[in-house]
Amino acid sequence: MIHSLKYILIAGALTTPALMFAESLLVTDSPQARQSMTWNSPTAINAAPDFLIIGKSDRFYVGVGGNVTLTASFDPGRSMSNPNEFITSEIPMGKTPGNNGTFSFSAQQTQLYLNMVAFPSSKNRVGGFVGINFLGNNYLPELVYAYIRWRGLQAGYDYNLFSDSEAIPPSIDYEGANAITAQGTAGVRYSLNFGKRKEWCAQIGAELPMLSPTQSVMNEKNFTEPVTQKVPDIPVALQYSWESGAHIRLSGVLRNLYSRSVAENKNIDHLGWGIQLSGSGEILPGLTAYSQIVYGKGIASYFQDLNGLGLDMVPSPSGRNLSTVRCWGAYGALQYAFSDKFSVVGTYSQVRSYPDEYPDGEAPFQSQYRYAQYAAGTFYYNITSNLTSGIEYIWGKRVDCNGEKGVASRIQAALIFSF
Q1: pTM for the whole structure
Q2: Are the C-beta atoms of residues 256 and 269 closer than 8 Å to each other?
Q3: Which tens digit of pLDDT belongs to each residue from 209-236?
Q4: 255 and 272 in contact (C-beta within 8 Å)?
Q5: Could you give the count of Cα atoms lying within 13 Å of 289 in the half-sphere of its Cβ?
Q6: Domains observed in the chain
Q7: String of b and e for 204-225 (b: at least 16 CB within 10 Å)?
């Protein structure tokens, strides 16, 4: 009896704080709560989670959401090293004897996020958003979002402002079309909505520069050296949205990229710039189009396919300094919904870079990336409102500056539980 009483007292002591906390909170489905959650969501999510909590004072909302994503994939022929991201710039140029196919299981695309809004009915409402996935080595969490919003200001970590998350077609492949320009970065931005129904949105930002150059090396002597970057990237955007949900967006970015010429014993400031036109919307009943075209110099780090390849700048033909690289990319996709249950998506994408031939560098000119193509077909079936299945086929081709080619493909299936 004494032992039983002791356990009852311990249980009561442990659960009382939880009960007190529960009494101060209520699960809610109010329109204001969902509107606040949508206002504070990233463009790529743009929705309220299923689990919403509101304080009794109605001054604080918390939403918990995400998805559990399970994938199975098979790469015939050339094997890609990443089971979640089909990166065409990483297609092997040759086959490894014995490695003529790879089968993989993964749950690394699983995501969790926490959406918080204070003073939801006030002009001074404040939002905080944190999101992670598990794409790190051995399922280590990776930060996807961490920002604060107040009025038109946003500061923190998000996809760069130059990109258009609303124009990205759905895919099981986490990487998606190789011409997508969505890269995670830290920065600050300001958004202004205007027009009779706030159909226009103008944005400007300052973001951490993503610089990936190929340094010049001649006769085992460095002719250029990396230096710290002194100026943030400056993206701007103007978007028009229709009541149907369709939109068109024009964005640009200016960059000041610094390198040091050893031969001239001075720092050199290189101008990088890019312009992008993108959009999405229903063009016929049940048929939705997604498209984007990008062109610029010194903006290779913004492309999914070129990030980290050293193609923002490469050695000049003389080899004594660096020059920015011209590149462009474009994709188009169509999604047709046969019903609320069935839909199909077809995507084609291409990225090209035009580095001038150089005598020597960290990476030989002959093996530099010239262009790559990406094509995918995806079939989705919604089992329930929270459970989706899909199957996808991907084909990719990479061509280097010396004309060498590599082709790879993948077939994969997914089961996605969203909450």
Answers
A1: 0.88
A2: yes
A3: 989 999 888 766 778 888 888 999 999 9
A4: yes
A5: 10
A6: 19-418 (2.40.160.10)
A7: ebbbebbbebbbbbbeeeebbe
